[in-house]
Design brief:
This protein is of the alpha/beta class. It has a domain at about 1-35 and about 100-175 and about 290-355: 3-Layer(bba) Sandwich (FAD/NAD(P)-binding domain), CATH 3.50.50. The chain contains twelve helices and 18 strands. The protein has helices at about 10-20, 45-55, 60-65, 100-115, 165-170, 265-270, 300-305, 315-330, 335-355, 365-370, 385-400, 405-410, and strands spanning about 1-5, 25-30, 40-45, 65-70, 70-75, 80-85, 95-100, 120, 125-130, 135-140, 150-155, 155-160, 180-190, 200-205, 210-215, 225-235, 280-285, 295-300. The strands form four sheets. A seven-stranded mixed beta sheet has the order 6-5-14-15-16-13-17. A hairpin with a 5-residue loop joins strand 5 (about 70-75) and strand 6 (about 80-85). The chain starts with a strand and ends with a helix. The structure holds flavin-adenine dinucleotide.
């Protein structure tokens, strides 16, 4: 069996590696001319990590990422709300990682070249449309020189991200992504470690927040690359670009955070010394009823773009790849495999897209913002720890990374 994957992001590349492992040959077609290490940080939660480890990638992840050991929530004044161990420190049998998105993509691309062959990843191929029938699928690409190139295979997987051309052809009336009314500025800054040096923090509330975490281990000089996101609410009719490479500027957001001072981290300093600042709106797409149409299906952000609340987007896409491998290995009929894949993955990811609109596990920040009357001491006690713990646990179950599920499957 052989097929086409459109989009050489995290999900397209992981899917290629997994299908190849099961003897299914694929070629990945990517619109970029060259893969540069674009983006900043993302998280790989244990339920997806165990599958990357299954692909033999643990040593490479350990070299390029950091094992996240703790998640902490703070109010905007830096008082602690909630802390929980993560990954191995929480008793999972596999780590949770934080990593530079471009570094992860380069790592996966290197593995595709090594395991499948250099020809398995083709750049400068922007999909413009596809055709399919009961025998196969054909992709029509445009190159940067304006040439049209046509490729055919037994199936086509659209892993072409939030602005997927494959999805647009399947759903021509879907319109623009849904905008939450929050604008996000992202960057990564070489800086001193903070807290446990493997802590991820979120601080603020629904209308203004920072998310900060290291994405590599300290270097010889003790410095780390610290990923940060600064976000605040803007009018819903704000003109925006849903483009991951859109540049942001310090003067657009930094002033809003000048009073946000934490004893253990100077966030203004992080903002000021970032390599490059990106600006991206908080957008997702409404869940759809179908991803699979005979020999064509969707995966990753093309299938279920979600708000980053819960730090789940990349992990869910990797779980799509796992399911695609499983179904294409057991069903000779591609359409049947894609239907089963959709049955397995569409309902849970749709629930997650909708839950993330209610801010996912980060709703604990807003609870404190609303309920605290200012009498709390060094730590917030205005919301019972049991209530905060329930929210954290419920989200893990919903997203499929509660400890018992992950560990049970690792041992199997
Ligand atoms: C440049 C970039 C930077 C990002 N930075 C971050 C970040 O800092 N933090 C974060 O959490 N998430 C980031 N993301 C999103 C994150 O990678 C995804 O949410 C998640 O990993 C799911 O991955 P995906 O492979 O489904 O989608 P993506 O990672 O979006 O990958 C889609 C791929 O498809 C390609 N593509 C798109 N349209 C076409 C087309 N018509 N023909 C051929 N190829 C096409 C894109 O160039 C891209 O390589 C970024 C995405 C991109 C593309």
């Amino acid at each position: 069996m052989s097929g086409l994957i459109v989009g050489g992001g995290i999900v397209g590349l992981t899917t290629a590696l997994m299908l190849h492992r099961s003897g299914i040959e694929v070629t990945v077609y990517e619109e970029a001319l060259k893969i540069k290490e674009l983006g900043v940080g993302l998280n790989l939660l244990p339920h997806s990590v165990k599958h990357l480890i299954g692909l033999g990638l643990q040593a490479k992840l350990d070299k390029n990422a950091i094992r996240t050991g703790e998640l902490r929530f703070f109010c905007k004044k830096g008082k602690s709300i909630w802390r929980e161990p993560r990954g191995l420190e929480a008793g999972y049998e596999v780590p949770q990682y934080s990593i530079h998105r471009g570094r992860l993509q380069a790592l996966l691309k290197g593995e595709v070249a090594k395991r499948i062959g250099k020809g398995a990843f083709v750049t400068d191929r922007r999909l413009v449309r596809f055709e399919s029938d009961d025998k196969g699928a054909t992709a029509i690409f445009q190159t940067s020189a304006g040439e049209t190139v046509t490729e055919s295979g037994e199936f086509l997987i659209g892993a072409d991200g939030i602005n997927s051309v494959v999805r647009q052809q399947l759903y021509p009336d879907q319109g623009d992504p849904q905008f939450a009314g929050l604008m996000l500025w992202r960057g990564a800054t070489v800086s001193d470690p903070f807290l446990s040096s493997n802590t991820m923090i979120m601080a603020g509330h629904n209308d203004q927040k920072v998310v900060i975490y290291p994405i590599n281990n300290p270097d010889e000089s003790g410095k780390q690359l610290i990923n940060w996101v600064a976000e605040f609410r803007v009018p819903l009719d704000t003109i925006r670009r849903d483009d991951w490479n859109n540049e942001g500027h310090l003067e657009e957001f930094a002033d809003r955070f000048v009073d946000w001072k934490f004893d253990w981290l100077d966030i203004s300093n992080l903002f000021q010394h970032a390599g490059k600042i990106y600006k991206f709106p908080m957008v997702d797409r409404d869940p759809v009823k179908r991803w699979s149409f005979d020999r064509v299906t969707l995966a990753g952000d093309a299938a279920h773009a979600m708000y980053p609340n819960g730090s789940n987007g990349a992990s869910q896409g990797i779980l799509d790849a796992v399911s695609l491998e499983r179904q294409l290995s057991v069903h000779e009929n591609v359409a049947a495999a894609f239907e089963k894949y959709e049955e397995e993955r569409l309902p849970p990811t749709s629930r997650l897209v909708l839950d993330n609109r209610k801010t996912g596990p980060e709703r604990v920040l807003q609870l404190v913002e609303e309920r605290c009357d200012g009498r709390c001491g060094d730590e917030h006690v205005c919301v019972a720890q049991a209530e905060l713990g329930e929210i954290a646990q419920a989200y893990k179950k919903l997203a499929g990374f509660d400890k018992s599920s992950v560990n049970r499957n690792v041992s199997e």
